[in-house]
Specification:
The structure is a single chain. The chain is an all-alpha fold and 198 residues long. Helix content is 79%, strand content 0%. It contains seven helices and no strands.
Length: 198
């Protein structure tokens, strides 16, 4: 697959993972809030699994581009995305089996998301595959997610409300708008020499 096609595929998968995650989490939250519809719950979990498969696809495709710059670091991006999917899928299966959510399940998912995202955006920044302003928003977003996850575990903020939700905004903007739009319009910079290292 050419870098141009890879860029478009990654952009599509970022949007797909966001849309399926939003749909799945809303159905799951409805069940948690008292909706007894188990069919809707099952659909919600399946949507979350689809979202997880999308993030694995992002990780594998991005590695094909990033490995030319720093193979040793780049491999950790798909690894973290696979961990993210695994944690999400296990929590979803537990929910269907026990009809109750795993405590702090989203925070457990956010840990590999933040680590992988910081690796990904650092490599984008250092390699100049995309303009640095695009990568910087991702660095800020995933950094805020990491900080917010830590603060939520400590009981200082709630990422589902108030100030906690603002910590999710930069990463969401990066994943659903900033990076995909750039990848659709311009793709990865072709002038960056393969084999250079971040």
């Amino acid at each position: 697959m050419s870098n141009r096609r890879t860029a478009i595929a990654i952009g599509v998968l970022f949007i797909a993972q966001m849309v399926t995650a939003m749909g799945g989490s809303s159905l799951i939250q409805a069940f948690v809030d008292g909706d007894p519809n188990k069919s809707a719950l099952t659909i919600g979990v399946l949507l979350m699994i689809c979202s997880g498969l999308s993030v694995v696809g992002i990780g594998l495709l991005a590695y094909q581009v990033l490995k030319s710059f720093n193979k040793e670091l780049a491999i950790w991006y798909p690894v973290m995305r696979i961990v993210e999917f695994t944690v999400s899928a296990v929590c979803g299966i537990y929910l269907l089996a026990e009809l109750r959510v795993v405590p702090n399940h989203m925070l457990l998912v956010y840990i590999p998301t933040a680590i992988g995202g910081l690796i990904f955006t650092y490599l984008l920044f250092a390699s100049r595959l995309v303009p640095r302003f695009v990568a910087v928003l991702g660095l800020v977003g995933y950094g805020a997610l990491a900080l917010g996850t830590l603060l939520d575990f400590m009981g200082i903020v709630d990422l589902n409300a108030g100030f906690g939700m603002t910590l999710l905004a930069p990463g969401g903007l990066f994943e659903v708008l900033d990076l995909p739009v750039w990848l659709f319009a311009k793709g990865f910079k072709q002038s960056v020499a393969a084999g250079s290292r971040a």
